[in-house]
């Protein structure tokens, strides 16, 4: 039985209890992809035999150590997958990369399996999904309507049940608008939180790799794997977590700032979302949206559009005929701006940023419509620039202000078309935003994707004073001492692996315990660990109760993040057995969750 909707936890539960095997899941998904009527979703597919070969090669023993073990995903075709052409929606631009992009490599290392490359608005220029020579994917709810863009195929693939999650990119809303039009969660991380090496740029200083999923819990789980400092990306940033209150104060649109392009059903559904947020205990207050709107307009209406020309300048000069007409008009229009114009717009945005920040200071987060409305493909093709601009009313400003955002489903109009909202907060507040999105999504009851099936994963909010700790032995999930953490209210933040310079030893203690040791210069595969979070007070209690020879030091993970964690005193290594080759304590003792 294939879980519906496709969620990481549901798939893993089915793998564990034997009701589903990886080959059976991937055989079913291949059949779905082959049967799916909208052939514009994919630009290229991984060969069926290759997918099944990867699924059959999976070792269930790795389920405990690989957080995305056997999870199917798809990739927007401006993100490199080794051996598969990257087109960016332009056949003449296509090249075949020899290696995966930074983000795809991380997801694959965590056990996920790529099914194919998905369609997009050419060079990620658009929010509607119709600007591709490979066709226009359609909303899963009505084939007359747009899928949203530019990450069109990525959203449709998840909403149609073809993949559990997907990668998009988001410069102006491309990871959020398609989420609304297909009843999904769309997580747009902070600029640089996910490395962009191997991603074709649209606006390099603003681009983000984004995540589509059926639940906020899944989007957050994928982010935990995908994040990390990418040394080859000059815009990459080391991840950190800004924690927001469990019950936020929420900025919403005043009546005079509400633009729904005449869509009365969308306007009513926005009110439904606000009322439900209040029912959750969120404090709602109106903000002045004017500075945000002016910033949003500047992204395409001013000199900032010249960054899109900079991204493809040489190719555009040699192959202008290869560009979609709407994309060509946008990029060609950038030629009229001078360097002086660019600086004038930078100064203008800085002034607007001050006004916008004053509004942001009134609340913890914003709760805005993801888009004012949804259009038919025919209407979009008849008026491609103006209608596309309308779609960015509530999304374009976010990256210019260095904010994070999570889009979520709200409900459906009488027409059967979906509507969604987005929670927007400070840079690096993704996990708090995802928890908000999760609680509001479940409260609204819109379900996920085309099936509208209710999601099962729950993402509790992180405590405001949370401290993380890395565990590598008996405190791992399901093991003998894990109860010492759970009794203190600790939550599992992520399953991870240490940086390569760590070794693991079986200490000569009674009962046996592992000793994690950092050995500078050692280049191993890393040690399987878990990161747990607990309040500062309970962290102190936990550490105070630790017996010798265990102690707490700083542990560096493979993603570059540093956390407090278990280390052992040097004297305890005398007579200890080096068990690094096992990759972790669980594998060594042979215990499975």
Structure write-up:
The protein has 593 residues and is α+β, with helices and mostly antiparallel strands. Helices cover 32% and strands 19% of the residues. It is built from 19 helices and 19 strands. It has helices at residues 8-17, 22-35, 48-56, 102-109, 152-159, 177-181, 216-226, 264-279, 290-301, 306-318, 325-333, 339-360, 377-382, 384-391, 397-400, 430-444, 482-486, 536-544, 585-589, and strands spanning 42-45, 72-76, 113-118, 165-170, 185-188, 208-213, 249-253, 283-287, 365-369, 403-412, 418-426, 466-471, 491-497, 502-506, 514-518, 528-535, 550-556, 562-568, 577-578. The strands form four sheets. An eleven-stranded mixed beta sheet has the order 1-3-2-4-6-5-10-11-9-7-8, sandwiched between helices. Strands 12-16-13 form a three-stranded antiparallel beta sheet. β10 and β11 (418-426) form a beta hairpin. α2 (22-35) packs antiparallel against α3, α7 (216-226) packs antiparallel against α16 and α9 packs antiparallel against α12 (339-360). It is globular, with a radius of gyration of 24 Å. The chain starts with 7 loop residues before the first helix and ends with a helix. The model has no long low-confidence stretch (mean pLDDT 94).
